[in-house]
Amino acid sequence: MADRSGDVAVSASRSGSDASGARRRIDGDWCDLGLPPNVLLARGAHVETSYSFHRFRSRRDPAITFGRGASAYLGTTFDLGPRGSVTIGDYAMLNAAQLSIDGHLEIGDHALVSWGVVVMDGYRVPFTPEGRRRLGETGRDPFTAEAADVRPVSIGAAVWIGFGCTILPGVSIGEGAVVAARSVVAEDVPAGCVVAGNPAGIVRRVADAGVGL
Amino acid sequence: MSEVSPAREVDHRWSEDEVPPSVTLGAGVAVIGAKAFARYFATAPGAMTVGEGSVMDGARFSVGPRARLRVGRRCRFSDAVVLVEELVTIGDRVYIGWGATIADADFHPLDPTLRRIDAEGCSPLDGAPTRPAAATAPVRIGNDVWIGPNATVLKGVRIGAGAFVEPGSVVTCDIPARARVMGNPARVTERF
Description:
The complex is a heterodimer. Helix content of chain A is 7%, strand content 28%. Chain A has helices at residues 12-15, 129-138, and strands spanning 39-41, 46-47, 64-66, 71-73, 77-80, 85-88, 93-95, 98-101, 104-107, 112-113, 118-120, 153-155, 160-161, 166-167, 172-173, 178-179, 184-185, 193-197, 200-205. Chain B contains 1 helix and 20 strands. Chain B has an 8-stranded mixed beta sheet with strand order 2-5-8-11-14-17-19-20, with no helix packed on it. In chain B, strands 1-4-7-10-13-16 form a 6-stranded parallel beta sheet, with no helix packed on it. The A-B interface holds A 30-31, 33, 51, 54, 77, 79, 98, 100, 116, 118, 120, 125, 127-129, 132-133, 135-137, 139, 141-143, 164-166, 168, 182-184, 186, 197-199 and B 11-12, 14, 53, 55, 57, 74, 76, 78-79, 92-93, 95, 97-99, 143-144, 146, 148-150, 161-162, 164, 166-170, 178, 180, 182-184, 192.
């Protein structure tokens, strides 16, 4: 990531300008949740609405770090468990993606994540019907349960994830890769590859299109 | 939550929609999200029922005039879309993830000639023709089924009890009980 010296970190807990732990309102936001104090925005980073944090439960500090010029638009949901954290690289853009993260998610610089993308690093429910039945009868919310088995996901620099893709637990997507629309990525994607399908497979290399990394 | 008066309020609401009178909610049911019933057209009493303790968090119900939707107890739907023209039956403790879609209909005819009529029938213009019928087939989802985010379940499908549908799967045919499926079309990868 680029040198951050000179950046102004916008954080209630760090800037000292707000009461400690207070949520910060975003200018023009229709949602009154406010930004949680453990979300850090580098200079020029943009979050369209604090509704993106309506499923945010992380107690890490910082829990989310936005790089310079990074952005998260309407429909993006930071569904972070109590120990979840996300680092978003410089100029990375999240456009209505759902991030269900109980461990750490790394999103590289210049990564682009499209509408309807789901990224998850654990299942939050037992695989066996008996386990789910027990969980269900407790009345606890399986969507806010913390995954017992977190398998971290990483999205490399300059990766482009198309509309409606699903990135499953444990997947690493290498630098410059392209994930075609509606793909379901269950295995690692090497750098510079284009993957498509459900489950996704390599269909070509970016270099074959005459472009370099 | 109250036993006699299930949650009918909505957090972060931006619409004035109420829960329609033909929806029967069990004790402790929560429906969260003002768009839940924006496309609900059923009028028969009890056309949609939701069992006790279920939470419909951001789910949207598109229910046709003659459709019936049965949701069991202690289910959790999160931002899922359920499209019903005939009958969708969902068991107990069924979890449906973000962006998943359940549909029991094609909504539009396969025949292009009929589909042109259908397109005009859908238009907001005055004097639009009556829409031709589209194929429907009931969907039945058993108890303790998990349906991952972005999955799609299409018309006529029966998903057996305890099945685990991986995120993003497209379920086009029946899934046996206790099977783990993934892909498009969804195939069994494991049995529990």
